[in-house]
Design brief:
The chain has 313 residues and is of the alpha+beta class. It has 7 helices and 18 strands.
Length: 313
């Protein structure tokens, strides 16, 4: 796993520690729900919430029809756990969202519904607990279940950077790992750009912490606005360190996008500059860790070349 000294900060791109939550019990009433949360809940579809496991607090929205849940990266609900089979269970949601069933597939480990093992298609209801293997617990949330708000609050606390509103390091490592696997399975390229903002110390000393945070938020909004690739994402990993992941994208296309970002910095919109490095998953690169190591190497070369430079691995 690569590390780099960026604008005086040594940053380590290793996996972040994620907080796990236990089984939260039956659906509860959220007494302090905001108007925005209530409006969101009214529009939200049914979902599967991860109560315990590597992606705890994540909610996977469900559509009518069939959803396969398992370890395979192509599944809509992908769970990275050794106790879970590639195709573990099949969930079927009726068109009117009123009925949902779980069917165990050819999984090596047992599936429990509310603590009871199942061998065949079984109906579940709002709030039902689904245990896969020994370590992963899911909960079915019907449309309107207020517990969704509690999961989403916890998810935001653990996965969203409060300064920029981007994904944080924890979320980047989780989603990025799955996207690298999925692209490799589909024989598609995936590219990663690391951007380090330079000049933060001077801005903090000259204009204050609030001005620096406002600038980082502006940078994040600009980066999000440049994404024209389905599934692309921006994460704020450490202060001033951004990761931009481009699934199904060759490095030349990602390089063009990165160059446009560096030109935006060069235009003097902010009293800050940047350095950017890029790499793509290619022969010998099979994990997000390896992709990060190569991209960090390119970033360090970019930093040695001066302000607003972009270099690829």
């Amino acid at each position: 796993m690569g590390t780099g000294e960026l604008d005086g900060t040594v940053f380590n791109w290793g996996p972040a520690d994620g907080a796990e939550t236990g089984d939260s019990g039956a659906p509860v009433e959220v007494t302090d729900m905001t108007d925005a949360e209530a409006a969101h809940l009214a529009e939200a579809p049914p979902g599967i919430a991860v109560v315990a496991g590597e992606t705890s607090d994540t909610i996977f929205d469900l559509s009518p029809g069939e959803t396969i849940i398992g370890r395979h990266p192509a599944h809509h609900v992908t769970l990275n756990n050794g106790d879970i089979s590639r195709d573990h269970i099949r969930l079927i949601l009726s068109e009117d969202l009123s009925e949902v069933t779980i069917e165990p597939l050819k999984a090596m480990n047992v599936t429990l519904i509310n603590g009871q093992p199942i061998q065949e298609k079984t109906a579940i209801t709002d709030g039902s607990s689904i245990t896969l293997g020994n370590a992963c617990v899911l909960r079915y949330l019907a449309k309107g279940n207020q517990e969704r708000i509690l999961f989403e609050r916890s998810f935001a606390q653990n996965n969203i950077d409060p300064i920029t509103g981007c994904w944080n390091k924890n979320r980047f490592m989780d989603v990025g790992s799955r996207q690298v696997k999925l692209c490799l399975v589909a024989n598609q390229q995936i590219s990663l750009a690391l951007l380090q903002v330079v000049g933060m110390k001077a801005m903090r000393e000259g204009q204050g912490e609030e001005a620096l945070h406002a600038a980082l938020k502006q940078i994040a909004e600009h980066l999000k606005g440049t994404l024209d690739v389905p599934g692309a994402s921006v994460s704020h990993i450490v202060e001033g360190g951004f990761a931009i992941l481009y699934p199904n994208t060759p490095i030349n296309s990602a390089f063009k996008s990165a160059t446009e970002v560096s030109e935006w910095f060069q235009g003097g919109v902010l009293d800050l500059t940047c350095s950017m490095g890029l790499a793509a998953a290619r022969q010998g690169v099979t994990t997000l860790d390896q992709l990060i190591t190569n991209t960090t190497s390119a970033l360090q070369r970019s930093m040695s070349m001066g302000a607003n430079q972009v270099r690829s691995y």
